[in-house]
Amino acid sequence: MIATLESKKNLMKSVEGLQSVRLIEIDDTTSLGISLYENAQQVVNAEKKIKELMSGMMPHITGPAQIMNGGEFLKFEL
């Protein structure tokens, strides 16, 4: 999966407003992805490119993605 994501870096960089992406492995079959955008409208505008990105991930995904949106309310970095 990492190689597939690495090959999509240019596509990710072309998504307007996308500031960062974090992927967290929960267990062998579950992962969590968190994307940060400049604003909510850019999430809507990015939908086509994100679907293109996700279509390349289908061999690595065993079930439908659950997508939720919300605002950041706390940021803590060391």
How do the strands line up in the largest sheet?
Answer: 1-2
Order of helices and strands: HHEEHH
Average pLDDT over all residues? 85
Q: Return the structural class.
A: alpha+beta
Specify the biggest β-sheet. Answer: 2 strands, antiparallel
Q: What does this protein look like?
A:
With 78 residues, this protein is an alpha+beta fold. The protein is built from four helices and two strands. The chain has a two-stranded antiparallel ribbon. A hairpin with a 2-residue loop joins strand 1 and strand 2 (30-37).
Task: Set out the fold topology.
Layout: H1 2-7, H2 9-13, E1 18-27, E2 30-37, H3 40-45, H4 47-55
Antiparallel strand pairs: 1-2
Considering the chains and any ligands shown, give keywords for the structure.
78 residues, alpha+beta, two-stranded antiparallel ribbon, 23% strand
Can you describe this structure in just a few lines?
The protein has 78 residues and is of the alpha+beta class.
